[in-house]
Design brief:
The complex is a heterodimer of chains A (338) and B (372). Chain A has 338 residues and is α/β, with parallel strands linked by helices. Chain A has 10 helices and 12 strands. Chain A is globular and about 65 Å long. The longest helix of chain B is centred in the middle third of the chain and has 37 residues. Classes of the chains: A alpha/beta (338), B alpha+beta (372). The interface between A and B is large, with 46 and 36 residues.
Chain lengths: 338, 372
């Protein structure tokens, strides 16, 4: 097992404008806070968390769509090892041929003024892989068909397609340069439930056929469980637990993971209790960060250790990692047992 | 894992599916009745401003010395016994009131002067190149004055039609100049950001906080009196444009800032597009239609600003006639009481301003064809 992506101490901070004449200094927002994470070649890694937990920012920082404040991202692609964080604009464009992204909302991620053909072919053209649109056509048709689009639809504009079909276009665009690594940023959360399954199945199929490595970002645990081998849980910019999917669901080790699992709605109407383990909303990512960030909402917090010392993400064996002082002592409820 | 469904139902090709954004906008615009009416009026004005020499019976500076301050002459097709004729006008006699000495114009029904179409009249240079003397209508002897004459005997109809060219071209050139300045400055602010952005935005706030009328007046009054009418025309246009670009620059900047973070722009970046390509291929087309709406809405303001300046005697000057110049002569109460037809050019201003507002409304609705 080799790592395709190695993330070390990656942080993304957002600050207000620095030296405004009339502005007070604002404290930075830690969207991503010292995250270290490895993504194994060929796996599908899920990244879950509430909105505002920094999962999308982490995804974008890997591609440097958002510039990381500190930290490194390395990629061991078949054509050599790259330090993504140190590439200049030109090298970055080259690297992007090998790492792509599928965006959340297919409505806004396709340029409405370009035909599907032009959209998918753009990467081939601007990177000089194809000289003109006629050159690019064979590859575009090939990738479009593998994404379930028929070749006679390609001269249409995005408005002619439904949400699910648009997401197929978006996936085809990401795959056209045959990348090894794809970040899927909530690729199905804007879709109807009936369409979600189709897109998830498509992603599974493509992952197998094209030997892709996926980082699958979502707030929906069920969706992530369906497609991913491992799951990383994020809370306020930190990764607080990583475990293989089954283990995480059956036997969570972090109280936050337990709370997330308990919040999964049951498909049995008799089971709906309305109880929830997470009472309040997450506090913002700005301001003082002391102790365990989850402790104010944690029902197992002891009030002293938890609110002063920040727990580190530690290996607990079986390929699991967790950031909780009491991980070993607590016995938490998994999926289907509450 | 469940195998994926590989093909999806092939929909029959719909005309809309293959339509470019421009076609979609047209389909949407066409449904807006008022806007269509507005655009027809604008089209008429455009035609008028191309062919004023042909459409008028005489020239803007030609005087009918026998008929000064004369009321409009009506073109009749029925005489006083209701017998139909080809279009004609009655003869006129001008007498003076024995006591007040005021001019009194009397219609002489015994004389019928036929109005002919496509007649040869006074010579002009068509579009400044071709000599011609063909006019849409005219008479052999006495002149036809549809809107009456001013106190020098110049035909108001002719002058209004000629003024259309000047007024509309000021609007068009002013709007285009404002567009270019706004796009360049706003683009610079939006793409560079940082200190450049701050400086430009403060400058715009400064310009916008100056009361506009005194500023126009000051700038226009600074023009040397000995300048030719053409020079004044160019400079007045530029003054109006120099003040009109600020709104547009802000719009361009804010659009660029929002679009930069749109998913489809980010996706295009990932596809490897250079910054230039991102701007020209992805961002500009996305907000160009909004800019065109802004321009359409700005046009009446520039037109009215020119009218205001000229009305106050600080804009265009004779022999260049604009609608504002024409209204300048209708400033005093005597003129209004005795020669109300001098106000007719004002109706043209109202008409085109309203037409442009309707047109702008329709464009605004059509500007985002993907909204539903």
């Amino acid at each position: 097992m080799t790592n395709l992506i190695e993330i070390t101490d990656l942080s993304v901070e957002f600050r207000g404008p620095k030296n405004g004449f009339f502005r007070k200094k604002s404290s930075p927002v830690h969207a991503v806070d010292n995250v270290s994470l490895n993504i194994v070649k060929g796996e599908a890694l899920g990244l879950v968390g509430e909105s505002g937990s920094g999962k999308t920012t982490l995804g974008r920082a890997l591609l440097r769509l958002v510039e990381p404040t500190t930290g490194q991202v390395h990629m061991n692609s078949t054509d050599g090892k790259r330090n993504i964080t140190s590439l200049d604009a030109k090298q970055l464009r080259k690297a992007w041929q090998n790492m792509q992204m599928v965006f959340q909302d297919p409505q806004s991620s396709l340029n409405p003024r370009m035909t599907v053909m032009d959209t998918i072919a753009e990467s081939l053209l601007v990177n000089g892989i194809a000289k003109n649109i006629r050159d690019a056509k064979t590859r575009v048709v090939e990738v479009a068909e593998s994404c379930g689009l028929s070749s006679d639809q390609l001269n249409r504009y995005p408005h002619a397609f439904s949400g699910g079909q648009r997401q197929r276009i978006s996936i085809a665009r990401a795959l056209v340069t045959k990348p090894e690594f794809i970040i899927c940023d909530e690729p199905v959360s804007a879709l109807d439930v009936s369409i979600q399954a189709q897109i998830l199945n498509l992603l599974c199929k493509l992952q197998e056929e094209m030997d892709l490595t996926l980082l699958f970002i979502s707030h929906d645990l069920i969706v992530v469980a369906y497609i991913c081998d491992r799951i990383a849980v994020m809370y306020l910019g930190n990764i607080i637990e990583i475990a293989p999917t089954k283990t995480l669901f059956n036997n969570p080790m972090h109280p936050y993971t337990e709370a997330l699992i308990s919040a999964i709605p049951s498909n049995n109407p008799d089971d709906i209790t309305g109880e929830t383990l997470l009472a309040s909303d997450a506090p913002g990512s700005a301001g003082e960060r002391k102790g365990c960030l989850f402790s104010p909402r944690c029902r197992y917090a002891d009030g002293k250790k938890c609110s002063t010392i920040k727990p580190a993400l530690t290996d607990t064996g079986d390929g699991r990692m967790v950031a909780c002082h009491f991980a070993e002592k607590l016995s938490l409820t998994g999926f289907g047992n509450h | 894992m469940v195998s994926s469904q590989t093909t999806i139902g092939i929909n029959p090709v719909n005309r809309l599916d293959l339509a470019t954004s421009r076609q979609l906008m047209w389909y949407k615009f066409r449904r807006h009745r008022l806007a269509m009416t507005g655009s027809i009026i604008i089209l008429l004005f455009a035609i008028i401003s191309i062919f004023p020499e042909f459409l008028t019976p005489t020239g803007p500076q030609i005087r009918d010395t026998k008929y000064t301050s004369g009321p409009p002459t009506f073109v009749h097709i029925l005489d006083e016994t209701y017998t139909p004729h080809l279009p004609f006008i009655y003869g006129r006699t001008i007498t003076r009131h024995p006591v007040t000495l005021r001019k009194i114009s009397r219609v002489d029904v015994s004389v019928r002067i036929p109005v002919r179409f496509l007649v040869r009249g006074h010579k002009y240079k068509f579009l400044g190149f071709f000599s011609a003397d063909l006019h849409l209508f005219g008479t052999d002897s006495a002149q036809v004055h549809l809107f009456g004459t001013d106190k020098l005997g110049r035909d108001i109809f002719t002058r209004t039609i000629y003024a259309t060219r000047v007024s509309i071209s000021i609007g068009v050139i002013g709007v285009l100049a404002a567009f270019i300045i706004g796009l360049a400055v706003g683009g610079l602010a939006g793409l560079r950001g940082g200190i450049v952005d701050s400086v430009i935005m403060r400058l715009i706030e400064l310009i916008r906080s100056i009361p506009s009328l005194p500023l126009w007046l000051g700038l226009a009054a600074a023009l040397p009196r000995e300048w030719s009418a053409l020079q004044v025309y160019v400079v007045v246009t530029l003054i109006l444009a120099a003040l009109g670009w600020t709104t547009l620059a802000r719009r361009v900047r804010s659009k660029l800032l929002t679009l930069r973070n749109e998913d489809f722009v980010q996706a295009a970046r990932l596809a490897g597009c250079s910054d230039t390509r991102l701007v020209y291929k992805h961002m500009l087309p996305a907000f160009m239609s909004y800019l065109i709406v802004d321009l359409t809405v700005a046009f009446p303001y520039i037109l009215l600003a020119e009218t205001t300046l000229s009305f106050l005697g600080l804009g265009m000057r004779e022999p260049m006639v604009s609608w504002g110049v024409l209204l300048f002569s209708a400033q005093n109460v005597t003129a209004l009481a005795h020669t109300p037809w001098l106000l007719i050019p004002g109706a043209f201003i109202i008409l085109i301003v309203i037409a442009f507002n309707f047109f702008g409304d329709g464009l605004r609705d059509a500007a985002d064809p993907y909204s539903n």
